[in-house]
Structures are given as structure tokens and as C-alpha cells.
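Journal club side-thread
Mid-discussion, someone asked how the predicted structure for our own chain would compare to the paper's figures. Pasting it here so we can look after the session.
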Amino acid sequence: MQQVRPMVAPVLAFVAASMDRGYQTDFWHHLARGREIVRQGRVVDADPFTFTVGGHLLRDANWLTQVGYYRLFQWGGLPLAQFVNATILAATMAVLGRLCRRASGSSVAAMAMGVFVFLGLWQLFLIRPQTLSLLLFVLLLGVLHDAARRPWLLWVPPVLMALWANVHGGFPIGLVLVGAFTLAAVIEAVQRCWMGTAPPPSRSKTRNEIDHESKTRRTPPTDKGTAQGAAWRHVLCLAGCGGATLINPYGWKVYQYVGSIAHTAAARHVEEWLPPTPDLWIGKVFWMSVVALALLYLAARRRPTLRDLCLIVCFLPLASRSMRMVAWWMLATAPIMASLLAATLLRAREAQAARRSFVPAALMMFLTGVSVMSLPWMDRYNPVFAGVRSAHRTESDIREVCERGLGGPDEARVFARLEWGEYLDWSLGPTGRVFMDGRIEAYSEPQWREYCTITSAAKGWEQLLDGYRIDCLLLDTTYHARLLPEIRQSKIWRQSACAGSVVLFTRQSSENSVAINP
């Protein structure tokens, strides 16, 4: 049973990511960028997709992932890309489970924390480069934990950071993680230098706890000189990681790209960059994790170790300010919470339950069957898609509407919600026919306000459509609830096609059409 429990969270992640049939925000633009990088044989440095910022300078730390997406799509289409994405997420949860198991000595605690983290992050399991950031983060976390016993492992983080800086713009959080471990090592060295000894334990420990810590010790006892050596190794590791992130097509300017996204998204109130509030699911889970961590410390009658305290201090303020940072908080604190959970509730019960029975084999068969049925190629056989929910994708509606209602000159200009603009980047090709896509950092404040004005049918929306010479409107019946009545009453626009929640309007006063590549 102890071998099966750690598989629960990875299987949940794999199934959730494999069965997701929602609109794949971000993926289509990354796919289009990957196609252009492969076609041109170099990193694309100017925007080829929109008519609002066409030719705008581009910096993109996702370029290597984009090439990978395009190759996967060439080999097996969207199902293969989704399968690989689900596999990476499952691997992330498996590595996290290993860390929790080593920290706690309890497979039950590791399983419980894995499921808890999954419940907090499952809404993030889209096909996008952040998936690789999640995997690299837990790999880096594992290496830093193991480096306490194997100092030579501190050569690995710079290698991971060099890769990270070329697959996703979230790589600075890796520096925060390395910085937290470095801070703990430096403070410990200073304590030993000035005090001569480490701080006394907060309470006496049981024999079982002493035996467990001797097997899974993360911070072995060190004398003054060894503590100073460990501090210097961590400092050099942090410096090496910072230098490694500069190994990318843009050098130090890649930080400008990351900074502009964070600043622009927060200023424009993009949801995932706002603070995690209790009215959202991820906000509920975040604040539950904060309360649970505090209660577990009280129940276990432990004080935070120096390393745990540094991790909490580094990641809690970031997560409390942005939902985008909640993932890193939950991953970084999962081993801590697993250790506390095992110390308070589960170790005795696990010892009693560790007996042979048919349950582990049955659970293993069930998890394997669920994983197989969730594969993208198994839609027609999956009972969930047969009656509970539909396997139909929004992308199919967009493609159908465009095929029925568009056709002709390539210069036709399309206004759509920015998320759909990313699919149009892919399907229309790099001909600059989209008003806006999801790369919000590329658009100025006036252009953002113009997009919001048209979307909400505010004063001046008609003049903006005329000024930009927009020929087609690809509207969402829910998202464009204010704009749709105005368009339907207008004598200028005519409904050309409709599928699902997607409606296409074309300007009657011009010959407008464009070919869509399915």
C-alpha cells in the first residue's frame, strides 16, 4: 500500500490535464510562435500577428517550449501535446510526493499533501509553458534539500536555471527558492560564528522521531567551519544560478520581459495576477494552507526550523499578493506540512495499516484504468464524456464559424476577445490580421483602453472599429454580452455564422473574407 499511495496525486493530475476540453488559453499563440521560429530558423523578434502592434519588438523566454509545442503538434496534433503536458504534470506531482515522503517518513502524509496541492493547482493545468516551470521548481526544491547531505549537488541548480530561462518566464521564482536556502545557510553560519552552537531544540523529541530524522536528515549537524563552508557553497550556487539565467537569446534583457508582464498584468487587473481572495477557489485553498500550516505547527509542538522559516518568509508575501504565486507557495511548503502532519496524526495509524491485502492491487488497477481512459485519444470510450460532460472544444466552434463565414482577401481585419486572438494567430497565420491577443505586455495603455471600450460597447466603440478598418467581429455570446445587442441593432454589421457561443459578424460595406487553416 505504501508504494501505491504516492501515485494518487500524480494520477489525479494526469487525469485532470488529459480530460480538460476547455479553451486552451495561451497554447495557440505559443504554437504559432513555434511555427514561425522553425520556419525562419531563428528566434522571432518582431510581432507578425496583429495589425495594432505589428513589427513590435518581442522578447520571449518561452521560445524553446514553443518550438517543442510545434514539433509535438506536427507529430500528433493537439492530443499528443495534451498527453505530454499531462505527463509532465504527473511527473511534477510524483517528485513532490517523493519530497513529502522523505520529509515525513509517511506515505499517508505524502499522499494527503499531494492531493491537497493538486486541489489547489488543478485550475492551472493548461497546456502552457508554466507546466515546465512547475516541474523545474520541484526538481530544484529536491536538489536543494538533498544538497544538505550531498553538497556536490549544488552544481545542479545553475544547469536547471539555464534551461528554465529558455522555456518559461517564471524562472525568477527559482532564484527566490535558491535565495531562501542560501539565506538559511548564511544565518546558520552567522549563528555558529557568534554563538558557537546551534539554537537548542524547541522541545525534547521521542525515540521514533530521532530515528526518523537520522534517516531523513535534511540539515546534518555541522561545526562552525562546516557551516561557513555550506554558506559559501550556497552563495556561490545562487550567484551561479543568476549568471546561468543570462544564457538566453536576450541576455539580461530577459528580465525586462518578465518585469513588463508582471507590471502590466497587475495594472490591468488580469485575474491571475491579483491577490488570492476567498471568493475564488485558488484563494480559498491558499488561505486554508496558511491556516493549516500554523495549526500543524501548534499540534506538533514544533517551532519552524531556520530553513522552513526562510521559505515561509520568502514565499508567503509573494503568494498573498498574486494568485500567480500561490503555486510556488504550495509546492515549497508541501514537504514542511507533510512532516508536521505525520508527526501529529498519521505515523501510528500508518504502522497499523501496513499489512498485506487486496486493497493495494485493486487501487493500482483502478488508477491505471482511470489514467488510460483519460487519454485524449479515448474520448469516444470515456463514460464521463458520454453523459456527464462534453468533449467538444471551443476551438472547434471558432474554426467552424470562420470556415463558414470567412473566405477571400488576406487583408481582412478581425476583432475578437484576446484569448481567441491566440487561436487566430495560429489558424490565420502570421499576416497581422488580429486586433489583440493574450500578450498583454505588447500593447500600450491607450490600445488596452480601446480594446476595453469596444468589448464593453462604451462610448466611441463604433468610431474605433471604423478607425481600425475592422472587417470582422468574432464575438462570444457571454463575454460580449454588452456589445452583441449593439451589433445586432447596427445596420453596418451582418451575422455570417454561429456555432456554440461563437458568433461571426462581417461588415456589409466591404468585401471581407479570409481563409482559415484548420
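Post-session note: Strands lie at 414-416, 472-476, 493-499, 502-507.
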